Amino acid sequence: MSELAYMVREDWGQHGTAMEPQSAVIREWIGEAPYLFAVADSKRFSRDDRDADLEAAEFVAPEGATRIVFNIRELGTLKSEGKVIDHAVVALHPLKQAELETIREAVEAGSVRRLFVLIWSPRDLVRIWLDGSGALNLHTGEPMIAPDPLMVEAGRMMIDHQYNGLSSGQGKDAVVQLVRAFSSGGYPIDVNAWLRAYFAAGGTFHHAESIEKLIKEMKAGTKHRVKPHYRENILEIIEERVRDGSSVES
User: Fold this and answer.
1) What would the mean pLDDT of 59-86 be, rounded to a whole number?
2) Count of CB atoms within 10 A of residue 141's CB?
């Protein structure tokens, strides 16, 4: 598993007052030059476009000769070619699902040893994935508390049913019934907590969007009609599975 760290852009900039000291924190974590920057579109990485990626890179690596810039999608070729980047990679403001999946798969495959992500917004899904994956928040100096192991196990059960998607059919049934069971057991219907657990279980960004939508609807009071898929005492069964490693029966 790759070593992961991140910083949210507003924590990096702090209204234009902290870019230099925060960039020094980033440099300390990523190590010596050359500095590898993965961006959505390297063609837009220019002063003429006043690109936010370029601004961040200039603070992290003030000397242009120390920067190597490439497209995030290029990380997708590493696994198929059997290559590993031992040097730290800095991903700047990844947003689109395809970019995020490429990064996630590279990390899952161990194709990138160390990855730092500069996040555009604290609400971005990539931050939830990073928190669920144990990434270090360089602004606070600490990782997010690890997801609840029972919720992570429930996340694995959701993954078992995502072959036809999680927005409808058995996938939706599994998500809604599991969240309801945990809610009945005293767990809050917390979208971010569930997404962190799902990502910790190995979930993808594509299906995370379906989970996010369903749980937001449940939190707002929507009563989804689903077919019973698990036993009524599924939470207790999950507790037993986490405790002794036995399998959950539907």
Assistant:
1) 95
2) 8
Same domain for 109 and 164? no
Q: Are residues 168 and 128 part of one domain?
A: no
- CATH (domain of 79): 3.40.50
Q: What are phi and psi of 196, to 5 degrees?
A: -60, -40
- Distance between first and last Cα of the chain: 31
Q: Are 106 and 79 in contact (CB under 8 A)?
A: yes
Select from 143, 169, 188 the last residue of a domain: 143
This prediction's pTM: 0.94
What angle in degrees, to the nearest 10, is found between the helix axes of 97-108 and 205-219? 120
Q: Residue 250 — pLDDT band, cuts 50, 70, 90?
A: very low
Task: Compute the distance between CA of residue 203 and CA of residue 4 in angstroms, rounded to an integer.
Answer: 17
List Cβ neighbours of 38 (8 Å cut-off, separation of 6 or more): 70, 71, 72, 74, 75, 89, 90, 91, 92, 94, 103
At 182-223, the pLDDT tens digits run 999 999 999 999 999 999 999 999 999 999 999 999 999 999
Do 13 and 101 belong to one domain? yes
137-189 pLDDT, tens per residue? 999 999 999 999 999 999 999 999 999 999 999 999 999 999 999 999 999 99
pLDDT of amino acid 70: 96
Whether residue 37 is contained in a domain is answered as yes
In terms of Cα–Cα distance, which of 146, 127, 129, 153 is closest to 138?
127
Alpha-carbon gap, residue 198 to 133, rounded angstroms? 10
Same domain, 107 and 164: no
Q: Are residues 111 and 177 in the same domain?
A: no
Q: Which domain holds residue 122?
A: 3-143
